[in-house]
Amino acid sequence: MRLAARANSVTGSKTSGTRNKAEALRAQGVEIVNFAAGELDLAPPAEVLRALHAAADSDTHRYTDTAGLPALREALAERISRLSGVSYGPAEVIVTTGAKHGLHLAALALLDPGDEALVPNPGWGTFAAQIRIAGGEPVAVETSDTGFVPDVDRLEALRTDRTRMLVLNTPNNPTGTVCPPEQLARIAAWAVAHRVWIVFDECYGELVLPGVTHAHPAALVPEARQLTVGIGSFSKSFAVTGWRAGHVHGPRALIDVLKNLQSHTASHATSVVQHALLPAARGELDGFTAQARDILAHRHARVAEALATVDHIRPAATPEGAFYYFLDVREVLGRKVGGVPVPDTDTLTGVLMEQAHIAVTPGTAFGAEGFVRLSYAIAEDRIAAGLRSLREVMSGVE
Ligand code: PLP
Q1: 249, 283, 317: which is the final residue of a domain?
Q2: What pLDDT sits at residue 15?
Q3: What value does the mean pLDDT take over residues 39-51?
Q4: Any idea what the CATH number is for the domain that residue 231 is in?
Q5: What global pTM score does this model have?
Q6: Is the CB of 207 under 6 A from ligand 1?
Q7: Rounded to whole angstroms, how far apart are CA atoms 111 and 235?
Q8: Less Cβ around it within 10 Å: N or C end of the chain?
Q9: Is residue 201 in contact with ligand 1, taking CB distance under 6 Å?
Q10: Shortest-distance Cα residue to atom 3 of ligand 1
Q11: Beta bridge partners of 127
């Protein structure tokens, strides 16, 4: 079978291996605590569900404008302007079928074959995959020794005349860290000086701990506005991951290109979903995200307390946003857990599933051997039970 080179340039998501193993154990009656989820366990806001039903009952089943419903773009423009402190108009916003598709369109619009894109490592694997699909070359920027935030000297050392874009994801998946505004300003100034696009993934931007500031590059360095592609999502803030609804903001000329690309690929986000998300975009459901932040802050504290009692494993950083803890497990590697040799992180996650009955995501899914990602987007009693069994299993490390 002859396929395009592109077909072999990416592999499927690594997280599905964890999911399959958990399913197999569940089928045997084993209860697994799922610390691998990339989504909130909360039900979507009732108003969103009501709006979905109302949309389904009205005449909203036809194609929409490829950039999204005008009312939704308008509401999003206002919302993005309010949250970022940078003014965006409706023509500078496009609704996409999830942030993921928005990122894909951005990579297609920005990269020519052979162009380089700087991608912080560890990082969400989809960034590098999409850059490859677009014909570009992802260039890893190691951040594990710089607080999981790119260092400007390092960016400069990796910059070539083919560097077109830098991915910045804050709050970060998988580390939960938030880029401090001073550092974001330095990065934005560097990008402006060298005409490098900033693909700014702020899907978790509304999920930060109390007192933590999530800043926008263009709010700190106004000249960065012309080079910033902001990527947002309804998935995480409103617990509707399955609806596939995200958005992109940026300079109008770029948004027009994304609109053209979307018109030939997805066409547009699902019509009823767009209607249902109007109240969310208008800010009428900000109480829900405030409540989600509160719940996550409690869970974050529970995880911190419980982890402090676990041997051999420690947080690699203190997360300030999203719902992830990135754990340093290097001390366990090369040893035995419950009598089983654990040479690497992937083996460890398998052993934790079998012995502690918990699912965590190996850091290798994010380019980082020696770390695992623990999602606390699950109920507190599940968190407590899962971390109790982790402590027990870790006390048996030889
Ligand atoms: N960006 C990051 C950093 C993510 O972690 C995710 C989902 O896990 C996405 C984008 C995708 O969001 P969406 O569901 O809107 O496609």
Answers
A1: 283
A2: 66
A3: 93
A4: 3.40.640.10
A5: 0.96
A6: no
A7: 26
A8: N
A9: yes
A10: 173
A11: none
Q: What is the mean pLDDT of residues 181-199?
A: 98
The structure tokens listed for 215 are 């800043």
Q: Let me know how many helices (H) and strands (E) the chain has, helices first.
A: 14, 15
Q: Is residue 100 lining ligand 1, measured as CB closer than 6 Å?
A: yes
Q: Count Cβ atoms within 10 A of the Cβ of residue 297 and give its class: 0-12 exposed, 13-18 middle, 19 or more buried.
A: middle
Closest by CA position to 33, among listed 381, 307, 392:
381
Instruction: Print burial letters for 58-86: b (CB count within 10 Å at least 16), e (below 16).
Output: eebeeebebbbbeebbbbbbbbbbebbeb
Q: In percent, how much of the chain has pLDDT > 90?
A: 92
d(CA 85, CA 60): 33
User: CA torsion angle for 187, 188, 189, 195 (degrees, to 10)?
Assistant: 110
Report the pLDDT value the prediction gives residue 181, as an integer from 0 to 100.
97
Tokens 């694997």 -> residue: 125
- Residues 123, 81, single domain; the answer is yes
| Residue 150, ligand 1, Cβ within 6 A | no
Question: Count of domains in the chain?
Answer: 2
Cα 176 from Cα 114, distance rounded (Å):
31
Residue 38's Cα: distance from chain center in Å? 8
